[in-house]
């Protein structure tokens, strides 16, 4: 199964066998062990063969973290298939995604965890996919979030992604899996739990109440989330009545963390370590170290990863990088470096993410980072959420606009007056929103990440 360094995943079953008597998954009141996982992977490998799914075929897997979804994902990878994990929430995009990813077969996990198989495209030729097939490697195609444009189909080598877990020896922990199966952060969390012998805990839904209930009931130790969802936790005030003392670590990533949200989460969970993560669909997830639980400064790197700062932007070169996009040109330079588009500040070995270069608001030559203004706006009483964007202006080029979701109805003129007064205390004049509106629409997508391409 090995054709070049990083492509071999034949070690996977032996690694899982090391903890075969331990709990691997808690799902809707059912508990599964690693022994169950191994048995079901073996069962589904035979099912794939009987259903005519051949090595190298591109297979869409639609579902969430149910037992059969996990069993099938692992069976497909060991069958040397190219897997396209998709969520139910992106269903309106599925036909386009099937076409972009050259999908041959489609497996859908139903609500009762049964599964159905149907055919996709017969022709699935693309140089990147053909390269994986020629080397006898399994792969994963993950679509970017599309929050700043069309979703791109990233082709990743499963062997490269899994390589860092081959000798993993971290303490096994109970982790509530939050980021979805179609997200690089979700895939990374899944693999990190499995290959360290930990336990996956699922919640009935991704709401503050459901997450708190799962933490309480199953003594969850690790909660991976996004800044947007952590702000939802704060605003919900739903923690009362739950025993959350088992929590030891909350990780956050995928978008800049507003300092006000970080302070609020630290107050809510003073004994829990807060750690910022960093990664991209195109590169995988990297090792990070936060300065402390109240800091957004972090070190980024780890084995197989190089970083550099050019013009205030973070560039990364990684051994786990994707092979390329199926539906867009390669973003790598001739030396393999990738421009993340993230503007950063540096403090010795530490960096702080300010925001995406493409999201900077240029007000008369002054740079405004949305996350910085959002952090201040979220301090305003009665603000549940806010989205900061730029609007064109004939004099300054752009001005700052704020779209806020309120906890309870309020006179718009009164709210604007309060908001401007608060911002004047914390922000430079060019950073203060000149347009302030109130909305009841969702400001984040199904991955709990702010939607800025509106």
UniProtKB/TrEMBL annotation:
Pfam family, one: AMP-binding
Residue stretches in coiled coil: none
PROSITE patterns per UniProt: AMP_BINDING
GO biological process: fatty acid metabolic process
Source species, domain of life: Bacteria
GO molecular function per UniProt: medium-chain fatty acid-CoA ligase activity
Residue intervals of the AMP-dependent synthetase/ligase domain: 15-326
Record domain AMP-binding enzyme C-terminal: where: 372-441
Family per record: Belongs to the ATP-dependent AMP-binding enzyme family.
Protein name (record): AMP-binding protein
Organism for this UniProt entry: Bacillus velezensis (strain DSM 23117 / BGSC 10A6 / LMG 26770 / FZB42)
